[in-house]
Specification:
Length: 239
């Protein structure tokens, strides 16, 4: 068995004490000069990407985990930082587009013989299983092998409706165990604070016969995952 952990990281020691449960407050207020204020988004839909990014920022900066147990209020600079990092986690529109591509019904569950041929002409019709074990798992593993935490997007729905994007989730990987063809990825999940036992399990097998992922928490299936882009920022409100 191969076991890898990012040195010094555990959700119970580095993650937020509070869960990803927010009141109905705007994610962002856009002021139109002196004419009006436009409220965008709803924090109650979740700020998992912002929380994961903020936890990674704090860890990389060498700052202690904040002791607060309740979510910061809308006027709190810590809330604004998490919101700003939520927006950063979208990488423009690249991450939502990646989620949407992987949740589309037209993407097959098993790897078809013609998928590789289509890839040579720039058409991505690889199965979700192929994406997990041939493309994204190696990227996540490379980050962890280098001693860095890895942002992971969890695709939790198969749907062509773009309004279903908010059913998906973003988490932070900090280690893995590899036993034969069984990979168990260790996860900080903002929905489960102080929990060191959240895992994502996947069989690194032949995608032509079907690949599935199993999440240790029963708050939604995982039909695919991918490594999401991340650039550290200075978590100034916690200094």
């Amino acid at each position: 068995m191969v076991s890898v952990r990012v040195p010094g990281f555990l959700p119970s020691a580095r993650g937020f004490h509070f869960a990803n449960r927010w009141p109905h407050i705007p994610v962002y207020d856009l002021r139109l000069g002196d004419l009006a204020k436009l409220s965008i988004g709803d924090a109650a839909n979740g700020l998992c990407g912002g929380m994961s990014f903020a936890v990674a920022d704090l860890f990389i900066a060498g700052l202690s985990r904040p002791g607060q147990t309740g979510t910061p209020g809308s006027e709190d600079p810590h809330y604004r930082y998490i919101v700003d990092r939520q927006i950063d986690s979208f990488d423009g529109i690249a991450v939502p587009l990646r989620f949407y591509s992987l949740m589309r019904r037209r993407r097959p569950e098993r790897e078809p013989l013609w998928a590789s041929w289509l890839a040579t002409i720039g058409v991505d019709r690889h199965s979700r299983g192929y994406v997990m074990v041939r493309e994204e798992w190696p990227r996540v593993r490379a980050e962890l092998d280098s001693g860095r935490v890895a942002m992971v997007g969890l695709v939790r729905v198969i749907d062509d409706n773009p309004f279903s994007l908010n059913h998906n989730h973003q988490v932070l990987a900090y280690g893995y165990d590899l036993d034969g063809d069984q990979a168990t990825v260790r996860i900080y999940d903002p929905n489960w604070p102080d929990d060191d036992d959240v895992t994502l399990r996947v069989t690194i097998g032949d995608p032509r016969v079907g690949i599935s992922a199993a999440y240790s928490k029963a708050d939604g299936p995982v039909v695919c995952f991918f490594r999401a882009p991340y650039v550290p920022h200075d978590p100034a409100p916690w200094r």
